[in-house]
Design brief:
By secondary structure, the protein is of the alpha/beta class. It is built from eight helices and nine strands. β8 and β9 form a beta hairpin. The longest helix is centred in the first third of the chain and has 17 residues, at 3-19. The chain starts with a helix and ends with a strand.
Amino acid sequence: MKEKTKKKLENIVKNSYSQTAHEFSLSREKEIWPKLKEMANLVENNKKVLDLGCGSGRLLKAFKEKKIDYLACDQEEKLINIAQKNWPNHKFIVSNLDEIPSGPFDYIFLIAVIHHIPSRKKRLEVLESLRKKLNDEGKIIISVWNLRKSRPKLVLKTYFKHLFKEPLEFGDVLFPWRKNHGQELITRYYHAFSKKELKNLVKKAGFKIEKIEEDKYNIWLVLNKD
């Protein structure tokens, strides 16, 4: 992927969350996903946890019965401000994927994050960087939207639409989003992973797959160092 295209997609991601921060936060006040609770239950008390791309901090709902050393970061300042207000006893910082805290961490959560990273090269660089910030016995928990199963036509439509304009990688999806369910449209970017593609990516980054599960809406992985 050309650097110009990658930067454009990164800006689309940043702008989409900046424009919908309040709406996004409200949508995460619902009951936390059962699968996310299951993944959080892997974490023992007194472990050091990084919540990368934390949004408004909803992952903490799954840790309410645990004592953990929790640090969270997100590139969107509006979401970090909401998270800090909601969870004043925990630490939240504004940082992008090139400014990840040094660690080391026992657990790193990337919930609905890497499908927002444009370019295969960048996704690999981020995962390789995270591997270095993980304790030897640590784990990384990842979820991505399963768009190839839930929205297969959208994947093909986006690819062919941009094929002769500004070529995207296959699986990249751009689609309009109605802000606050009204008439104002904003553009959102996702990469629609196949299960095979995701497995190849994490293995190339040096991880061993402890668990991988797929449902209609998400693909979930638990990784440790190979």
